[in-house]
């Protein structure tokens, strides 16, 4: 792209040339670069065929964590992911971690693993590498499900390859990626070894004044959900926190590796209780961030680091002061399903061919078409108390709530017709865990999915209302939302 710019070609021509190169390269690429459906699902444990209504004898939970940050940041080149390309890290503000929980209801069916990794995103291929280490170790009997989510911090080392030295270079470091996978697997195995009996509680708090939505419609989950484990031995607890907010508060100028505000939320929890935590992001597409994100991104002298740390402290305080806690019946059910998505974004294709992206992608013989192979899961905790939708990407909140733009205000002029996630569960409370088991980019309602008329995904366009449609350039395609929601509807209908 820099070469094309150097030649003085107009912007539209540069994008058109890059598009044609992507088509040619993809068409000529060998099948060895791609994945079959069987390979992609080899380590996806299916979970429960149908959900049980019979509670177990009590909760067992184990927690462990592993530091992922390499020791040579600032000496060796590691690219920071989430803002601009070619942004080498110069230091470490706080460590990247993999944090894992092993959860068992003692029904005799085995346990479930939830792991949160401080990074911008992990492909399903990378998640399966972690799963393979855990499953093939043979150290956890009757394991039902292993789920790995990215916290989506925009200040950690690149784990997707999109923020390297240039537009067409891989920003991932192979040794670091291996360290990350081994660390996450080690944390999962250690969590199983550290399991204790105890009680599980959940509660919510309204955080609507802490969230900003920067793309129309203004719609987001106003609740922070905290699931708290209280061990029977009187030791320190574990807090599982779900919040729909981009961890991007250090801003574009950051040069230091950081887990962003979730790390400081955790520090507040640890300082006041001695407890540990996991952070699971929610439906954050379109773009949900912190209340002062405009200052972070647009005010040159704004103290982003101080704000980020204070924001994390405040979120931790909110989680610790929840007043509506309820005990969860010892019952965990989960089911997973592979999903095939047509890959309509040629940037995705080019990234795969150039070995920048590691997503599981399938290529059909004698065809230029390709599919992204991903997965979804549905988790219930308690006796229909909490339903959790494990989604592989940055879901637009409207696809959970149903609060879509009306036809007259949408980019494409028609109403969105979906059965949304909130209609697929009869649990007392539900939420989305995003960027789970795969990083797919943005998942956008079709009535507001707009691409450049001539250059498609290669250029950011504006609609008739003057709204910028950046997120589309980082999406698999306009059919993604419908296919994922239809698959989740079928999955949730099948469990009873």
Question: How does this structure look, described?
Answer:
By secondary structure, this protein is α+β, with helices and mostly antiparallel strands. The chain has one domain. It is 25% helix and 24% strand. The protein has helices at residues 2-6, 11-28, 37-40, 124-137, 174-193, 261-273, 293-298, 304-320, 346-353, 398-401, 480-494, and strands at 59-67, 91-92, 97-104, 112-117, 145-150, 196-206, 211-213, 223-231, 238-243, 256-257, 276-281, 288-290, 326-327, 332-342, 361-363, 370-381, 386-390, 394-395, 429-433, 442-443, 461-462, 468-469. The strands form six sheets. Strands 1, 3, 4, 5, 6, 8, 9, 11 and 13 form a nine-stranded mixed beta sheet that branches. Strands 14, 15, 16, 17 and 19 form a five-stranded mixed beta sheet that branches. It has a two-stranded parallel ribbon with strand order 2-10. Helix 4 (124-137) packs across helix 5 (174-193). The longest helix has 20 residues, at 174-193. The model is unreliable at 1-9 (pLDDT under 50).
């Amino acid at each position: 792209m820099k070469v094309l710019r150097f030649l003085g070609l107009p912007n539209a021509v540069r994008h058109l040339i890059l598009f044609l190169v992507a088509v040619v390269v993809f068409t000529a690429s060998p099948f060895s670069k791609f994945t079959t459906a069987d390979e992609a699902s080899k380590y996806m444990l299916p979970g429960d065929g149908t959900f049980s209504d019979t509670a177990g004898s009590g909760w067992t939970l184990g927690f462990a964590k592993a530091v992922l940050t390499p020791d040579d940041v600032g000496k060796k080149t590691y690219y920071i992911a989430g803002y601009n390309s070619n942004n080498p890290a110069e230091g470490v503000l706080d460590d990247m971690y993999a944090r894992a929980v092993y959860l068992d209801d003692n029904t005799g069916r085995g346990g479930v693993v939830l792991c949160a990794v401080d990074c911008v995103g992990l492909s399903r291929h990378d998640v399966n590498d972690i799963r393979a280490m855990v499953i093939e170790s043979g150290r956890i009997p009757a394991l039902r499900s292993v789920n790995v989510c990215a916290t989506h911090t925009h200040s950690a080392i690149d784990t997707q390859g999109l923020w390297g030295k240039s537009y067409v270079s891989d920003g991932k470091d192979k040794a670091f990626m291996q360290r990350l996978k081994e660390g996450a697997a080690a944390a999962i195995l250690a969590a199983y070894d550290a399991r204790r009996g105890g009680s599980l509680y959940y509660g919510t708090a309204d955080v609507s004044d802490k969230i900003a939505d920067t793309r129309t419609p203004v719609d987001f989950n106003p609740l922070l959900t905290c699931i708290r484990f209280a061990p029977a031995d009187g030791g320190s607890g574990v807090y599982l926190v779900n919040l729909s907010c981009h961890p991007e508060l250090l801003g574009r100028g950051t040069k230091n590796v950081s887990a962003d505000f979730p790390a400081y939320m955790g520090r507040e929890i640890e300082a006041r209780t001695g407890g540990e935590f996991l952070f699971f992001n929610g439906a954050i597409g379109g773009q949900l961030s912190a209340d002062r994100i405009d200052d972070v991104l647009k005010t040159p002298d704004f103290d982003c680091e101080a704000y980020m740390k204070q924001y994390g402290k405040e979120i931790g305080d909110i989680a610790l002061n929840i007043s509506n806690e309820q005990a969860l019946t010892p019952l965990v059910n989960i089911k997973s399903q592979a999903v095939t998505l047509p890959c309509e974004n040629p940037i995705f294709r080019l990234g795969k061919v150039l070995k920048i992206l590691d997503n599981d992608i399938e290529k059909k013989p004698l065809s230029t078409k390709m599919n992204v192979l991903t997965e979804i899961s549905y988790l219930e905790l308690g006796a229909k108390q909490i339903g959790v939708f494990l989604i592989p990407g940055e879901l637009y909140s409207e696809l959970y709530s149903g609060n879509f733009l009306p036809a007259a205000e949408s980019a494409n002029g028609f109403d969105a017709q979906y059965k949304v996630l909130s209609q697929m569960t009869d649990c007392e409370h539900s939420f989305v865990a995003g960027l789970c088991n795969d990083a797919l980019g943005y998942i956008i309602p079709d009535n507001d999915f707009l691409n450049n008329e001539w250059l498609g995904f290669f250029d950011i366009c504006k609609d008739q209302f003057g709204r910028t449609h950046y997120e589309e350039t980082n999406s698999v395609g306009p059919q993604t939302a419908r296919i994922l929601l239809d698959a989740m509807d079928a999955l949730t209908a099948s469990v009873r």
